[in-house]
Amino acid sequence: MSNSMDDRKKIEMSAEMLKKILDYSPNEIYVLNKDACIVYANKAYEKHYGIKRDEIIGMKNDEILAKGYWKPSIIPYVLKEKKTVTIKQVSYVGKELLTTAIPLLNEEQDIELIITATQEPNYKELYITDEPEAEEINEIDFYKENLFTNNKRMSSVIKLCEKVAKVDTTVLIQGESGTGKGVIARHIHKKSRRKSSPFLTINCVTIPEDLLESELFGYVEGAFTGATRSGKEGLLERADGGTVFLDEIGEISPKIQAKLLQVVQDLEFIPVGGREVKKVDIRIISATNRNLYEMVQQKQFREDLYYRLHVVNLQIPPLRERREDIIPLTYYFLSAYNKKYKTNHIIEQDVLDIFYGYSWPGNIRQLENLVESLIVTSDASIQVSDLPAMLLQTTSENNSHNTGEQELSASTLRTALEDVEKKLIIQSYKRFRNTRKVAEQLSISQSKASRLVRKYCKDLDFYN
Known about the structure:
Residues 14-58 form the PAS domain. 46% of the residues lie in helices and 15% in strands.
């Protein structure tokens, strides 16, 4: 019995073991120092926001808050009160969060560290906070109202959306099917002065040419066989004061292209079978997954109309080119459909790894549909065995095709970068023997400098 007790006394938890335990926590945990700089974040933080921990270590809380990952910030309360605070937050993917921040005080009762832990509440509760309640919104529509991304190209698109929303110029949105062209169009409308007026969508590929003409421009009494006696108001007229979104604009016929040109140029048109010119106050946003410029060269699309629609061009990258958004979008749809179907599914890391490596030919639409399907058909924990065979087969084929060359180049690059990093850290630390000055010289955070010095210099004679 005494030997057993002695053995237990000898057991010590290493920093590496503690890190593993924290990384297995499903809740976000991050730690800030007295200056509100992040000094630690666990793997849940990384997964939920699609950013690497190395990118945020050393950043100030205000910088993270400026990126909009959640609101409101809990840190000002803790710094002011110097006691544990719990508030309700909303993440940038629309997820409701319950966050607790615990200050660690020294003997002088000054804050040394702030430990924050974030989880999703499974029930409604009153939380202590001076902030107003967040406005409740259908989570499945949240992305359509509040675009978010970790991708630089997509960030540029969203910033451009904010600019063009303020004016009435025509916008052409180009991108593969399922990339969210309609979401972008609606976002522009919601940010514009027309936001309180209609936003009407018509898919030009699903409606026959003769019907499309009457849908767009309307018709007068007796315009054609089967026409109603009173005629019909067209989409353009019904959208007066608002926005018309023409999806798959590349599919319209030359005849309709000619009539649409008049609308874009002069904001006027003649209904089918009519003689009277009608004026409208509308904004036109169009979208296509085809290359309109090539269609112009091949005389399949009017050049004058192309340039009228192309005043502002937004190119939406496919999901495979913005992989840093795959995991946040997965968690967003998981949260949204859990709420819709009143379930509490979780998703295994192996599944997330497969999602990250998959090419997503159907883009965001395919990801959303798959997550919804998995929530409906799988048990509480979504596992690899729940995934469609086609997805697993495609992922396996891609990996076997690319493994050799990709692993060689990635390994070579990683090794080369580490060698350069090691050399710079050792040289700098030899010179200054001070992590703060190392950080200043190499333009990195002090916490990162300390970590790298420990990594590369601990076995050197001059390390202390």
